[in-house]
Amino acid sequence: MSLIIASQLDAEFNRGLGQHPIAPILIDVADEEPWSAAAEADILLVRPSPAWRQPTALRPPAWPGRLKWVYSASAGIDFYPPWLLDAPLVTCGRGVASDEIADYVIAAIYAHAKNLEAITARSRAQWINVPLGRVSGTTIGIVGLGAIGQAVARRGLALGAQVIGLRRTGAQSGVSGVEHVGDIETLVARADHIIVAVPATRQTYHLFDAALLAKVKPGAHIINVARGSVIDQDALIDALDGEGGPGFATLDVTDPEPLPEGHALYTHPAVRLTPHVSSNHMLVRHRLLEKVRDDISRFARGEAPSDIVDPVRGY
After folding, report:
1. pLDDT tens digits, 182-233
2. 5-38 pLDDT tens trace
3. Residue 150: partners with Cβ closer than 8 Å, 6 or more residues away
4. How confident is the model at residue 111 (pLDDT cuts 50, 70, 90)?
5. What is d(CA 13, CA 285) in angstroms, rounded to the nearest whole number?
6. How far is 207 from 184, CA to CA, in rounded Å?
């Protein structure tokens, strides 16, 4: 089976892809309007990039053209225009970076609990006994028990924390030891660390609004590794500044990205802001390559590839 693959990924990744046994014909569209490849490619491999946000990213008249399959290198597809989902088949890179993101979450939990930066002694005068927080015995609440949420859950349980979780479908996560709660209000009221790991959809836009933030356990730590749009950032700042609300927020995602210069989240004392790096994508790119190669093999055999995106749900 001969396939023409148009790839928006970098040259090194494409070289690895070109070594697939089916010897695909590769077209590099990294520096072009990637959707233009619909006229000549069977598969379009895309990544989030400014091209998809440009005014020129309008639905091509003949979209999806001859395309059989669009493969998003990212797990989330909210970065792309809605018409991308009109392709016959759309899949995503779900699960590729879940372990790395889960490690980031655990690092954030410990950084907040132990506050190592603040207690580092740089002089004799700072050689004082400061009480530290703990992780064992605390409650980690996970909103979204997909690949990332499950990876966080396994780590949290291993550290001796109680793990509670919420899943859209209400189904069990498959991680033994996780307590499944019935609603998000119960979860945020009980959790010391609240992990946000849901996809960005119409249903999750500003899921964490002023009303929900008011129900958060006093002093709780909110960690967002999903999308910035899931949290109403103005409401979060108000909640952090108020009495009896959340005590701290670790945000690896914001809306927009990056935030404009001077935004309050950059300097807020109760916020740790990182520039969407939790996926550690350069380290896990080999996992993505393995996933893409395996899915191409499945496709060539007439089998369904992994992680097909549901256009209705948006993930």
Report:
1. 999 999 999 999 999 999 999 999 999 999 999 999 999 999 999 999 999 9
2. 999 999 999 999 999 999 899 999 988 899 999 9
3. 98, 173, 174, 175
4. very high
5. 8
6. 10
Q: Is the pLDDT of residue 1 over 70?
A: no
Please answer whether residues 142 and 162 qualify as being in contact, where contact means their C-beta atoms are separated by less than 8 angstroms.
Answer: no
How many CA atoms within 13 Å lie on the side-chain side of 255? 17
Q: Which residues are catalytic?
A: 227, 257, 276
* Residue whose structure tokens are 């014909």: 25
Alpha-carbon distance 134 to 114, whole Å? 7
244 alpha carbon, distance to own chain's centre: 29
pLDDT band at 57 (very low <50, low <70, confident <90, very high): confident
Residue type, 269: P
Report how many helices (DSSP H) and strands (DSSP E) the chain contains, helices first: 9, 12
Structure tokens at 45: 């491999």
Q: So what's the pLDDT on residue 128?
A: 93
- Long-range pairs for 303-311 at CB < 8 Å and ≥24 separation? 305/69, 305/71, 305/89, 305/91, 306/91, 306/94, 307/91, 307/92, 307/93, 307/94, 307/95, 308/89, 308/90, 308/91, 309/72, 309/77, 309/85, 309/90, 309/91, 309/92, 311/85, 311/86, 311/90
For the chain, give the mean pLDDT: 95
Closest CA to 69 of 309, 315, 313: 309
